[in-house]
Design the sequence.
């Protein structure tokens, strides 16, 4: 089995909470570990972290102890019974849920001091597009967006992708439909979102694979176990294994695509995040204030774009089109996501 020559850093986000982002992060980490890779999971949900619960780990220390200077990142790391190394986030600590620019920079740069040799670092983000989420996503090499076939989830996934592309100039963005009825429905959900991105962002995302709805996931949660362990023969476990196989077959990205240093030892200091974070904060406030309008606008937008684009040939994955396809504000789309 060919292993990455350096650590591949994967950020997993969702936009909307409650779509199964942590479930995907935890089970994907286990699937990669079981396939023979060395995996570390960083729970970057710094206000309401729960990866340790999903992994069934006891964590005497967490990121709060690192940020206060009491412990190093190495000292707060624990290893699950599955072999996955976990850096636990904080839960119920208000200050950790709103990190400053300097604090986000410190966390990213601290990963270069870790002694563990790892093939994959999976960063489980918090929901939304807070400054810390965007800073962490920018410091990853690949970005996975978990989405469900739900109006709010679709709208927030598109909003997240839009900010990553337009404000942070990032690529390597992949869609993972979750809790879909079938693989065909997962592909259809990806196609709908991708058409909107192609039409209004001049960018197409990548399809990584879908996770089918499975009652075994909830049953596993109730036992404080990941479904990869609780029901290894289930449909969802099968899908996580497929995702892991697809990821392992990807060529290394080599460098981060945006304006930031990457986790795990990229050279150079993290540049100032202040201008972009200020802008993303305004966008976050706009989304919060206009969430209902955003959902309704986006549903109409998706429908119009899907009808208009039937039979059209989409741009090359991950590439900007030379001729912009339009403005989503003009189409009655996600106007509240436009930069302030």
Sequence:
């Amino acid at each position: 089995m060919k292993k990455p020559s350096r650590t591949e850093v994967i950020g997993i986000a969702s936009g909307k909470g409650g779509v199964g982002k942590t479930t995907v992060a935890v089970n994907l980490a286990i699937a990669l570990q079981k396939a023979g890779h060395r995996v570390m999971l960083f729970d970057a949900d710094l206000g309401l972290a729960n990866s340790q619960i999903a992994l069934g780990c006891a964590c005497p220390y967490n990121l709060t102890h690192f940020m206060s200077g009491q412990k190093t990142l190495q000292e707060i790391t624990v290893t699950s019974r599955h072999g996955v190394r976990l850096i636990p986030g904080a839960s119920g600590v208000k200050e950790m849920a709103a990190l400053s620019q300097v604090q986000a920079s410190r966390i990213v740069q601290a990963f270069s001091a870790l002694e563990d040799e790892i093939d994959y670092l999976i960063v489980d983000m918090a929901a939304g597009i807070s400054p810390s989420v965007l800073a962490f996503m920018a410091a990853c090499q690949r970005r996975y967006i978990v989405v469900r076939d739900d109006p709010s989830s679709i709208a927030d996934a598109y909003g997240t992708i839009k900010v990553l592309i337009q404000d942070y100039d990032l690529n390597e963005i992949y869609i993972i439909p979750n809790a879909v009825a079938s693989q065909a429905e997962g592909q259809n959900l990806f196609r709908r979102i991708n058409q909107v991105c192609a039409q209004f962002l001049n960018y197409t995302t990548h399809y990584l694979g879908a996770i089918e709805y499975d009652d075994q996931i909830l049953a596993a949660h109730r036992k404080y176990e990941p479904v990869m362990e609780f029901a290894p023969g289930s449909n969802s476990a099968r899908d996580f294994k497929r995702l892991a196989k697809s990821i392992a077959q990807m060529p290394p990205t080599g460098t981060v695509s945006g304006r930031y240093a990457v986790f795990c030892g990229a050279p150079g200091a993290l540049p100032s995040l202040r201008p972009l974070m200020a802008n993303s904060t305004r966008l976050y406030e706009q989304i919060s204030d206009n969430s209902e309008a955003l959902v309704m606008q986006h549903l109409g937008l998706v429908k119009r774009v899907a009808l208009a684009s039937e039979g059209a040939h989409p741009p090359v994955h991950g590439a900007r089109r030379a001729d912009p396809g339009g403005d989503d504000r003009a189409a009655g789309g996600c106007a509240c996501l436009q930069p302030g």
In short: The chain has a mean pLDDT of 79.
